[in-house]
Design goal:
118 residues; mainly beta; 8-stranded mixed sheet; two-stranded antiparallel sheet; 10 strands; 53% strand; globular
């Protein structure tokens, strides 16, 4: 399954690395921007996701995630900014190189907006 909708409303999401143009190395070893089929450039942002504590419950540890944004997020998302993701999805992935397997989750969102927490 791909592009599974994700509900992150119970989490605080804080920018740990500001959004930047997503780059990849092509077959010739040259860095180039990642685009979709229509030529729209993608961006990547690192977020620290931590579950919001519920009264009477232990505050769990958080985790840093990288999220691909399918549109330019604009300005105002510096390190330390709290955000909310727009139309967040997750897709599992797996690769094999030289007999070794790697796997994980790829997060994606249509964009993000600033979020204020009490």
């Amino acid at each position: 399954m791909r592009n599974i909708p994700v509900n992150l409303q119970g989490y605080k999401l804080m920018v740990t690395e500001a959004p930047a143009l997503k780059m990849r190395e092509n077959d010739n070893g040259v860095e180039e921007p990642v685009t979709d089929r229509m030529g729209v450039q993608h961006f990547v942002v690192s977020l620290f996701a931590k579950k919001r504590p519920q009264e009477g419950q232990f505050a769990e540890k958080g985790e840093e995630i990288k999220v691909t944004l399918t549109a330019d997020p604009g300005d105002g998302f510096e390190e330390g900014t709290y955000v909310q993701l727009i139309d967040a999805t997750v897709s599992p992935w797996q690769t094999e190189r030289n007999g070794r397997f790697s796997s994980g989750l790829a997060f994606r969102a249509a964009g993000m907006t600033p979020q204020v927490y009490d």
